[in-house]
Specification:
Elements lengths: L1 E7 L3 H16 L3 E7 L16 E3 L6 E2 L2 E2 L1 H7 L2 H10 L7 E5 L2 H10 L3 E5 L14 H9 L5 E4 L27 E5 L5 H9 L5 E5 L7 E3 L2 E4 L3 H10 L3 E3 L3 H10 L3 E3 L6 H12 L4 E2 L5 H10 L10 H10 L8 H11 L10 H8 L5
Parallel strand pairs: 1-2, 1-6, 2-3, 6-7, 7-8, 9-10, 9-13, 10-12, 13-14, 14-15
Antiparallel strand pairs: 4-5, 11-12
Helix pairs in contact: 1-11, 3-4
């Protein structure tokens, strides 16, 4: 089977999920080409697993100082270019399209009548799960990257046919340094982060940030360029993780048993919903601003929560290898039930309370 796999490149979470899927798909003997969109070519790193991948501009948003900049997002949108990218993408040599919320491949498949499976956190919001109400957000989840089968990921099934997080499940052995905190806040201003964390001189912070041109030390704060191998090593050593409320980083931290503090990207419905769900399920703490006093309080009170997720990528790759146009939809439910039965760990709220309490939580 020949597959085109489109991956949203705006954040590293989509790419991390594709890193987990790549060897699993190869193990099934599937021939996969990769296409990425959403960031400049020079901003991609450690892309060896994806071979001779393709790049497109796609559609994305502009972020400034931890907030979506809606005006500049609209100014930089180029619908004509996007339409041309969709129309000019030749899918004639592919049997199947996979999309991790990547719009060029998704819309090209829709126009060509090609079978398309969506694999992403965002597709979970197409189901009846707790989320921050947003009409615009729901339109984005439904139409930004359309797919015939939508396989969403979440930290709980909420009784819906969605999957646990798709992560690399063979993490580094933990060698915890009690004073070390890993920080990944790519949408925040880097000098401002360094200044705020310098106030907490009793703690060592390792910050990975896309604006870092070289690795530097600023007293108790170490700043690193993005690098997957080094980042995983830091996570294995840290006593806690501070990050934006992206799904994949939170999932990796939970799998490793790292206490987690999240600061959502303002104006981004998915991250606001992620905070709601993390708090609902008792999996993480949150802040609304990067504030040294609030962070210091978390450092004093933080407690680890561990959720051991199975190798969802391998289970999903097996399912994809068996995919055919007449495959009954009910098998999505079977796949979901099977992988959830393999999750080890539990959330801190009874199933009967999840839906009733969801929208009462502060974000």
């Amino acid at each position: 089977m020949k597959i085109l796999y489109g991956v949203q490149g705006t954040g590293n979470g989509h790419i991390s999920r594709a890193r987990a899927m790549s060897p699993a798909l190869a193990d099934q003997g599937l021939d996969v080409d990769y296409l990425f969109s959403g960031r400049p070519a020079e901003r991609y790193f450690d892309m060896e697993p994806f071979g001779n991948f393709q790049l497109r501009h796609g559609m994305s948003f502009v972020v400034k100082n931890g907030r979506i900049d809606r005006i500049n997002t609209l100014k930089k949108a180029n619908p004509g270019r996007f339409i041309n990218e969709v129309r000019n993408l030749d899918l004639s040599g592919y049997d199947l399209v996979l999309t991790d919320f990547e719009p060029v491949t998704a819309w090209a498949a829709k126009l060509a009548g090609k079978r398309c499976i969506g694999i992403s956190r965002q597709y979970a919001f197409c189901y009846n799960i707790p989320k921050v109400p947003s009409g615009i957000g729901q339109l984005v989840f439904s139409y930004y990257a359309p797919a015939q089968i939508k396989l969403g990921c979440h930290w709980d099934s909420f009784g819906e046919p969605i999957l646990p997080p798709i992560i690399e499940t063979n993490p580094w052995a933990r060698d915890i340094q009690s004073s070390l905190i890993l920080v990944y806040l790519p949408f925040e201003n880097l000098p401002a982060l360094v200044s705020e964390f310098n106030r907490l001189s009793h703690t060592q912070f390792e910050i990975y940030h896309p604006d870092a041109n070289e690795n530097k030390q600023f007293d108790n704060v170490s700043v690193f360029k993005p690098a997957r191998h080094a980042f995983q090593k830091s996570m294995s050593r840290c006593s806690g993780v501070i990050g934006n409320a992206g799904f994949e980083l939170a999932s990796e931290a939970l799998h490793m048993g790292c206490p987690l503090l999240v600061k959502p990207l303002r104006g981004q419905v998915e991250q606001l919903s992620n905070v709601m769900n993390l708090k609902l399920l008792g999996l993480a703490d949150s802040i609304t601003e990067i504030d040294s006093e609030a962070i210091n309080q978390w450092l004093e009170d933080k407690k680890p929560v561990q959720m051991l997720y199975p190798d969802v990528a391998s289970e999903l790759a097996k399912w994809i290898a068996q995919e055919s146009t007449d495959r009954p939809t009910a098998t999505v439910h079977d796949l979901s039930a099977r992988v959830w039965s393999l999750v080890k760990g539990r959330t801190n709220i009874p199933d009967t309370q999840k839906q009733s309490n969801a929208l009462q939580l502060p974000v």
